[in-house]
Amino acid sequence: MRTSRLATIAATAALVGLPLLASPASAHGHEGGELTASLSQLNDSGASGTAWAKVTGNQVEIKLDMKGLLAGAPHAQHIHIGGTNTCPANGQKGTGADGALTTTDGAAQYGAVAVSLTKTGGMTGMDHALDVANFPSEGSYNYSRTVTVDAAVAKQIAAGDGVVVVHGVDHDGSGKYDGAAKSDLDPKLPAEATNPAACGELNVAQMNMPHGGVETGGSDTAGTEYAGGFALGALALGLGGVGFAATRRIKTNR
């Protein structure tokens, strides 16, 4: 029973924030400042975008402009930290069906979830990595908000050690998350719901963050039909005791 539980946690670590690899020291950033990322498609998703981030103390202002995603389905989006702080290449083969890259396959490169880029509320920690009702569900969208993070995360993002990853790929072109292949994070979910769709490395900006933008939020309910499945996935991950706190509990219970 204990072995099964540890195996489940290991398989889901990449999405909910259990550290996989220590973050290497960065020589291309400094504490505080602005960063940019160009997001490129993964899994031939057709998705692309641009991200801007500004770190001020413990606050991270972030803007995403995304396009080419599946419309009407939730797209979990996060800032990952750890691994080599890089993105997989499009076409990089993974362990999923037909060689699809899964979330776990890319974790050694982009690391684990540090910030969940939800639309509203204070639910931006790693324990809200699957907050399905609070992620964008449009095919193209502009996202903008300021989140508060702890000092260590702020410092790593400012140093250029953050990677933006957007999830959700319509592999078979059916217009929804389906198919026989199951998610590497939770077998109750289709792999399409959690496989990475786009990735971009946050680097020190050569331009100022654009002003204005569209605040993502409101009463959009598109994609909520997936909420049940994602909620089951969240329960399987042991929400309420995830991330580094979960690591401590697991060690305690050994």
Distance between the termini: 12 Å
Q: Give the fraction of residues assigned to helices.
A: 10-25%
Structure class? alpha+beta
Specify the number of helices: 6
How does the overall form come out from the CA principal axes? globular
Strand content: 15-25%
Secondary-structure element series: HEEEEHEEHEHEEHH
Mean pLDDT: 78
Task: Describe this structure as you would to a colleague.
The protein has helices at residues 2-16, 103-110, 151-158, 191-194, 227-236, 243-253, and strands spanning 33-41, 48-56, 59-67, 77-81, 112-116, 141-148, 163-167, 196-201, 203-204. The chain starts with a helix and ends with a helix. It contains 6 helices and 9 strands; from the N terminus they run H-E-E-E-E-H-E-E-H-E-H-E-E-H-H. By secondary structure, the protein is of the alpha+beta class. Strands 1, 2, 3, 4, 5, 6, 7, 8 and 9 form a 9-stranded antiparallel beta sheet that branches.
Set out the fold topology.
Blueprint: H1 2-16, E1 33-41, E2 48-56, E3 59-67, E4 77-81, H2 103-110, E5 112-116, E6 141-148, H3 151-158, E7 163-167, H4 191-194, E8 196-201, E9 203-204, H5 227-236, H6 243-253
Antiparallel strand pairs: 1-2, 1-8, 1-9, 2-3, 3-6, 4-5, 4-7, 7-8
